Amino acid sequence: MKKRYRRRSHGVSMLHAHIVTCTKSRRRVMTQRVFDALRKSMRKTAAALGVDLVALEAEGDHLHMMIEYPPTLSLGEIVRRLKGASSRAVRSMRFPEV
C-alpha cells in the first residue's frame, strides 16, 4: 500500500482503521448478492464522508473493512453512517436470506 498523507492547511494525517462487524446473532446471510449490495452502498457513503474504503471483504457472518479517514471525523461516526446506510439499502432490496 502506497503511503498517502492527507495534507491540510494546519496539519498532515494518515489514519487507517481495520473494522470488523458481525451480523445479528452471527447469522450467515452474507451471500454474494448481499455483499455486492453492501459494497455499493458503503462505497457511496464513504465517498460522501470523504473516507477511502481501502479494502472490503466478507465471510458468511462478518465483514472486514480497511478504511483511511480524515481526523475531522470520529471512528464511531464513520461506522455508524456506513452500517446504517448499508443496512437500509440491503433491507430495501428484500433478499430472502436477510
What's the oligomerization state?
single chain
Q: Give the overall average pLDDT.
A: 89
Strand/helix succession:
EEEHEEH
| Strand segment count | 5
- Main sheet properties: 3 strands, antiparallel
Number of helices: 2
Give the overall form. elongated
Helix content, binned percent: 25-40%
Portion of residues in beta strands equals 25-35%
User: Low-confidence parts, pLDDT < 50 over ≥5 residues?
Assistant: none
Beginning-to-end CA distance, first to last residue: 34 Å
> From the helix content, strand content and strand pairing, which structural class follows?
alpha+beta
Radius of gyration: 15 Å
Identify the strand order in the major beta sheet: 3-5-4
Tell me what the structure shows.
The chain has 98 residues and is an alpha+beta fold. Helices cover 37% and strands 31% of the residues. It has two helices and five strands, in the order E-E-E-H-E-E-H. A hairpin with a 2-residue loop joins strand 1 (6-8) and strand 2 (11-13). It is elongated. The protein starts with 5 loop residues before the first strand and ends in a 6-residue tail after the last helix.
List the helices and strands and how they pair.
Layout: E1 6-8, E2 11-13, E3 15-22, H1 32-49, E4 52-59, E5 62-69, H2 75-92
Antiparallel strand pairs: 1-2, 3-5, 4-5
Helix pairs in contact: 1-2
Summary of the model, kept short:
This protein is of the alpha+beta class. Helix content is 37%, strand content 31%. The strands form 2 sheets. A 3-stranded antiparallel beta sheet has the order 3-5-4, covered by helices on one side. Strands 1-2 form a two-stranded antiparallel ribbon.
